[in-house]
Amino acid sequence: MAHPVTLIPGxxxxxxLAEATRRVLEATxxxxxxxxxxxxxxxxxxxxxxxxxxxxxxxxxxxxAIKGPITTPxxxxxxxxxxxxxxxxxxxxxxxxxxxxxxLDNRYEDVDLVIVRENTEDLYAGIEHRVGRDAAESIxxxxxxxxxxxxxxxxxxALANGRRKVTAVHKANIMKLSDGLFxxxxxxxxxDYDGRxxxxxxxxxxxxxxxxxxxxxxxxxxxxxxxxxxVSDLAAGLVGGLGVAPGANIGTEAAVFEPVHGSAPKYAxxxxxxxxxxxxxxxxxxxxxxxxxAAERVEAALREVIGEGRTVTYDLGGDTGTREFGDxxxxxxxxxxxxxxx
Length: 342
What we know:
A ten-stranded mixed beta sheet has the order 2-1-3-12-11-4-5-10-8-9, with helices on both faces. The two termini are 20 Å apart. Helix 6 links the parallel strand 8 and strand 9 (198-203). The model has no long low-confidence stretch (mean pLDDT 93). By secondary structure, it is an alpha/beta fold. The protein has two domains: 1-94 and 243-342, Isopropylmalate Dehydrogenase (3-Layer(aba) Sandwich); 107-239, Isopropylmalate Dehydrogenase (3-Layer(aba) Sandwich), CATH 3.40.718.10. It has helices spanning 14-27, 44-47, 53-62, 81-88, 144-160, 178-191, 204-213, 225-239, 276-288, 292-308, 322-335, and strands at 3-8, 32-36, 64-67, 93-99, 112-118, 128-130, 136-138, 165-170, 198-203, 220-223, 246-250, 255-259.
């Protein structure tokens, strides 16, 4: 039976990445019913918004979406489509794995981190206003409900995936009420998992230093929205950068899978962009759909192609195009068929 999935190609390099990723996912043998809808800068002229209602309706109907990067103006213009999707659809958990890939020139080996970021509140709630002509104020919202929910997601993820430890990351030494409530909520939830998953906490600035010095000490990190955004990029830097960093946004009614990087409009249409992050996001989507074996084959095929270094994009040290890189991964999948059920 085919999985209905909303496909949002995105802006800039997004459509090229989306097409390469679709070919890879179809090469697994898993069946999909793709519903392609557009969002972002390209639709502003037609709909007056980068996120038309029919896009949200498609995601609600299919319950699963995968999207390419979408441009967000800096300082002015429309609000981030990504943030809006998370808030409107209740995608409260942002999942960003960071795992080393052999063949990439990095300072670290065997990094294997999972960033679990609260996705709906904190400073990203968008409650801000001018205070006179020369000052502005943003309001940080932290609630017990959202904090306990994301902590429970992190612990459940750890149990389901054989992870050993959850670390809550905060600034409760300074923001004693808001971050204090987040930490208190994490500790409350951790008590329910005592003896099954280890728990600890770290102040966010110290956490950044620790990750640079000794990332092997950490496993699953759970963070409020802003810190999660920053630390997940730091973790991506440990394993090769945003070009290899997948992401998932999970809620109770829907899930949206996307790369962490931007739309790079100056490279649009040049067949040069690296689709690794979106392909890995597709693997996360396969796991969400219960297609675990297919997800593992996608990850293995991608790692083999990158490890060999013969057919990789320019940012990975090669001269292969986006389309050809995707085809190389798809061909590797076809050469290693799915395991036969016993």
